Each structure stands twice: as structure tokens, then as C-alpha cells.
Amino acid sequence: MQVKFILKNKGETVETIHATALIADVVDRLRNKRIGVLVVSQTGSDIAGIVSERDIVTGLAEQGIGLLDQRVETIMTREVKTCTPDDTIISVMELMTDRRIRHIPVLRDGVLAGIVSIGDAVKFRLQELETEASHLRDYISH
């Protein structure tokens, strides 16, 4: 199966933030939206970076509470791994596992078109496996 099937169920909304925003704003948005990552974007359709809970925890450990008054660009991850709607869910899960990342933005023709979390991928894959098992049980019983 492909990433586009996750986006079909989940939607294509992606929470973004400007690189010049304060990290305190990131913390508020992550908490209020109950999410783990924001895509750093100037237009809402480009990707300049990504900022995650992990980036904030690492920054706090290294710099202390003063980190919250700094700009997102000081801690954001600039090398963002992305996928396309046509990539397979298995390949995205492998990328997440290999790179130890939990979120991958989806690009359609170079434009931000969604985001997939490891939870999204695992949930979809489990549903897919359950459907396959159900079909096999039906086939065997007939």
C-alpha cells in the first residue's frame, strides 16, 4: 500500500511554523494540538526544516530554560527526510526505523501535501494485515 491511502484517511493538514518563531511558541502549539512535530515553513507549502519534541528536549538539556526565548531556526532539523504519496508504507516505515525518526513530511510535486507519523504507518499496516488475514480465513473456510 501507498502513503496516499494514509493521507486519504488522515487528511493533508500539516501544522507549520516560521523559522523566526520562538521555541516557546512551538512548545505551546505542540501541547495544544497534541502533536509531536511542526514543519518549519515560510509559506505553508515549502519545507525549511522540522522541529520536534526531541529537538526541544535536546536543546533544553544543552542550553537550559533560555532556549524557550530563542528562534526555531536555532534548533530545527534542517535535513528533512520526505516521501511522496506514491511511496510504499513499508518503505516509509523502514526509513523511519533506519533514521530513528517518527514523522515524515509528504511532498507532492515538491509541495507539502501531508505528514505521516510512525503511529499512522503502524496503524495502517495493522489494518492491512488484518484485512489480509480475514481474506485468507474466508478463502480457507470455503
List keywords for this structure.
two-stranded antiparallel ribbon, 5 helices, 5 strands, CBS-domain, 46% helix, alpha+beta, 142 residues, elongated, 16% strand, three-stranded mixed β-sheet
Distance between the termini: 27 Å
* CA-based gyration radius: 18 Å
User: Into which percentage range does the β-strand content fall?
Assistant: 15-25%
**Low-confidence spans: pLDDT under 50, at least 5 residues?**
none
Could you please say which CATH topology applies here? CBS-domain
Overall average residue pLDDT: 92
CATH class: Alpha Beta
Question: Can you name the CATH architecture?
Answer: Roll
Q: How would a textbook summarize the main sheet?
A: 3 strands, mixed
Task: State the assembly state of the protein chains.
Answer: single chain
Number of helices: 5
Q: CATH-wise, what's the superfamily? A: CBS-domain
Strand order of the largest sheet: 1-2-3
Residue share in helix: 40-55%
Number of domains: 1
* Rough outline: elongated
Order of helices and strands: HEHEEHHEEH
Structural class: alpha+beta
Describe the 3D structure.
The chain has 142 residues and is of the alpha+beta class. The strands form 2 sheets. The chain has a 3-stranded mixed β-sheet with strand order 1-2-3. A two-stranded antiparallel sheet has the order 4-5. The protein is elongated and about 65 Å long. The longest helix has 24 residues, at 118-141. The chain starts with a helix and ends with a helix. The protein has a single domain (3-141), classed as CBS-domain, CATH 3.10.580. Helix content is 46%, strand content 16%. The protein has 5 helices and 5 strands. The protein has helices spanning 3-10, 23-33, 53-63, 89-99, 118-141, and strands at 16-17, 37-40, 49-52, 103-108, 111-117.
